[in-house]
Amino acid sequence: MKIIKNILLFFCILLLFPMTSNSQQVTVSGTIIDSQTGELLISANIYNPETFAGVVSNVYGFYSLKLPSGNVKIRASFVGYQTFEKELFLQKDTFINIRLSPAIELQEVVILETTPQQAVNSTEMSTIRLSPTMANKIPIFLGEADLVKTLQLMPGVQSGSEASSGFYVRGGGADQNLILLDGVPVYNVNHLFGFMSVFNADAIKNVTLIKGGFPARYGGRLSSVLDIRMKEGNNQQFKGEGSIGIISSKLTLEGPIIKDKTSFMVAGRRSYIDILTYPFQMRENSKYDSKTWVGYFLQDFNAKVNHKINDKHRLYVSFYTGKDKFFMNFKDKTFDDKEKMALQWGNITTAIRWNYIISNELFGNFSATMSNYKFSLSQDVRSYDQWDNSSYKAYFEYFSLIRDYSIKADFDYIPNLRHNVKFGGSAIRHAFSPGVSILREEFSQSQPVNIKIGDDKLPAYEISIYAEDDFMLTDMIKINGGLHFSAFNVQKIFYTSVEPRISGRFLITHNLSLKASYVQMKQYLHLLANSAFGMPTDLWVPATKKVKPQESWQTAVGFSYSLNNKYEFGIEGYYKEIDKMVDYKEGASFFDLSFGQWEEVVTEGRGECYGLEFLIQKQTGKLTGWLGYTLSWADRYFEEINFGKKYPYRYDARHDFTITLTYFIKQNIDFGAVWVYRTGYPFTLANEKFVTFGGAFLHPNIFQPVVQEYFEHRNNYRMPDYHRLDVGFNFHKEKSKYTRTWSFGMYNAYGRNNAFFVYPSNEWDYRTDTYEYKLMKVSLFNFIPYIRWSFKF
Questions:
Q1: Burial letters 28-37, b for 16+ CB under 10 A, else e
Q2: pTM of the model
Q3: pLDDT digits (tens, 9 = 90+) for 569-586
Q4: Measuring CA to CA, how many Å separate 530 from each of 377, 562, 589, 590?
């Protein structure tokens, strides 16, 4: 009760102390809108051009600006749009929806959705806002535009294995990233066994990655927040775009249901490997008495409806579903035997959201969401014996599942120009099935068998409330301070957490600022990651009586500099400690979970991560891009792993350097290039091998030979350094009714054989007549060309 009282007191202080305002001022509020699509614009600037005092629009396009009564000008601007300016005579609070028109200049591309000067002035640090159009401009693996792979090119973000769409932020694990799609958690972001992400760039409006200095409104993860917002649908005219690539094709449609009032957006994507190979497999099967079809496909579907009830009320419904399936179907034509095997995984998310402009100074967003992720491995066997008229049926499935239902309320309160208050709360019901085995067997001449083993829908409940204020102490000092409180109930255990968050900036000059932040975080979920396989066998599990929640604290300090509001220079140093992480014990893996006893095969440990990040970027013009460099260390400590000694994290890379460029050669041709260099990741290899004799007898006088391996420590070797160059060209042409684009490029253009994994080998050396011990590397991808045809109307 004492903790709850303190939280309520903090809310009252934040809400009451900034209320003082000048009686001579009035409030101008409303929304910032794209004039061509009706989309609400996030982080647009609205200010008084005489004093330059202003605000930015929130994630739903809402703004509230205090201005003196009488004659006054307001100006609104957003990257890639023409500036809006209007003179007003203010006598009372006024509501104005501002429509911004896209810039006429065609020979430039916007790569980020904040200007360098905004980055200098803001209290935010360790934050990247990416324009989804950038993903279509730069060359990417197999030509598939991928937002996550684009973010991997930023400082502090590691990519994992070759061409993987997973990401690891500042030494954290994959489970420590809070990934939100329209405010709904997404638990698996991988298509094609990790080579593509589940996010269709054509359906995305805005992408924000936060690596540190987390505002109080975010909680539940330790390392990062990836906040992705889907398009709301064009409420002015019907539009569409799509593409056909090597791996998949996609189509996005959007338009008004009722002009200026109701709009929709739908987007679909599917691969076609299984469809294209089917005729060839069937032709080959015609030679035999059996038929086998082996295939794989990925698919996803996004949909959203946006309805404007009136100027103060909006209603949104969004939906996403995605699925990967690898399968083998077998049929014996002679004996009527059938067998189906499948490995599949996928997400489903749904959100219903209501925006309400409660007053000129207070905005509310209320949402109800559902998220579901399931991984499944199954086998279905059916046979019939015509000689004795008997039948046999068997079905086996192993699956893991996590399902969330949540409700949430968020409020923005802007009492004056010096304060921007956010507060709210949420409640989540989790349902976990961390490893369930099902066996059903039926034989015509015996009793059926029906067995289920493992935890099925273990419930857990999570609540949180938060409050934060982004306030100006002086013209030079601005601070974002807040508090996040959460509680988690599982197996009659009640965990709580009070997490302080603070970040600030000191304006050294008008275009140079010093920034610092400190945050504490707690995470009630764990991911049992299997390091030996690149398949979705990782299991989400909750904190329990035996396994405690993860905790971390992180501090960062850095400088942000803007040159002519075109170039941004940033440097940050960070230090992070993580406690109560879990990992498999030595020798344990995913295959030890057959009977659902996951708590018995894991151990608890901690991590230490620190480093420096450098970023130079040019955001507009014919030549755009960035140069990033990260110097970092990431270590782990587990009492039951590596003899309790420190060892490097599997994605610890000392140096990471990227150059990303796009260049408009002329109006209808643009060029993109990416160069990546990274220190090789650590891996574990036996230092010595020797043979002993013992164990079972093959003969009374012969013993079984046993190979023994000696490991000095975990992750005792490193892969060779990784580097590659990707290049690509886009050729655009205006047709009478649409614009088409041909994209050509090369992944790993100079054919570097980067190591995917390394293994030891004894090779006979004919010069010395002895075996020579060598480390051999296996490379997946040499140079890979791609081609893509896309259109937009």
A1: bbbbbbbeeb
A2: 0.90
A3: 999 999 999 999 999 888
A4: 16, 43, 6, 6
